[in-house]
Amino acid sequence: xxxxxxxxxxxxxxxxxxxxxxxxxxxxxxxxxxxxxxxxxxxxxxxxxxxxxxxxxxxxxxxxxxxxxxxxxxxxxxxxxxxxxxxxxxxxxxxxxxxxxxxxxxxxxxxxxxxxxxx
Amino acid sequence: xxxxxxxxxxxxxxxxxxxxxxxxxxxxxxxxxxxxxxxxxxxxxxxxxxxxxxxxxxxxxxxxxxxxxxxxxxxxxxxxxxxxxxxxxxxxxxxxxxxxxxxxxxxxxxxxxxxxxxxxxxxxxxxxxxxxxxxxxxxxxxxxxxxxxxxxxxxxxxxxxxxxxxxxxxxxxxxxxxxxxxxxxxxxxxxxxxxxxxxxxxxxxxxxxxxxxxxxxxxxxxxxxxxxxxxxxxxxxxxxxxxxxx
Lengths: 119, 246
Hints:
The structure holds two protein chains of two kinds.
Chain A lengths: L8 H17 L1 H11 L9 H8 L3 H29 L6 H25 L2
Helix pairs in contact in A: 1-4, 4-5
Chain B lengths: L3 E8 L9 E8 L6 H12 L18 E4 L2 E4 L13 E4 L6 E3 L2 E2 L2 H9 L20 H8 L9 H5 L1 H5 L6 H11 L7 H8 L13 H5 L6 H21 L6
Helix pairs in contact in B: 2-6, 6-7, 6-9
């Protein structure tokens, strides 16, 4: 059997797996800080200007790009599998893949655009 | 403590029935009885037509797998007392065609198992003059996966096996992993090719029920995830070095 016969899923799984890592280790930090701790006043809110200033460093933009993109693909893959297996929609697999991964690609484009236009 | 317990046993005779039904039997509730002992009591004392598989009665042969109250179990090591006061529902393993009552057809599983060549394959003409030397670390690498007894509880527990009959399945992949990790084996590339197809590891959605129900402590889910990592590395390598592989 040649490697040509192998599934093309490794790329999807790589994006999914890496996204899982980001979603488990890094995303909760952002949710905790910007979603809970700052709004509730548990920690001192650095404010919009200071947060925006953080973005001036290219590494921060690169990090946010990786965080968003991988998390989008993680969500897309999990969503596709949930719809196809739990809701028994395997016959619509091609459409689901198009919608889910298409959504992730659209999210990635939006992330690139946002990170590019933010001054 | 009640002296008896009700066993609701799934009955199906393919030549007579269109669909399975449950038949209730009242059996003694003894502290030292497994569910299999109760089934043998039914077969010996109450209804000799009940069909089920069993052999060793000590969790080694892997033939007495059945669904007990919705969970795939080896009935020889499932205490009847744990289900008191009952009733206990005993059915055949899910996701397999039923031959009769609690006996399922395993041909498909055995064909999948053979596909991954679960034995040591040598590609050289090495004739060992003495035993292969294997370090404790080399043994440790595959030991847990070698404990699989082919009881197929993992196939009955795996929702993907139920959705896709072509899925290679947990036990076959775990055993492929067992031989791929064995320092004496030389067919890891062949097995990787087989499990890397869509119906191999990529069908798995990491539900993890295979690992939960395994009566021998094997972790097929881990084997599948480790295979996914290897397959992904190979996939990227094939882009970087398209002609690198023989």
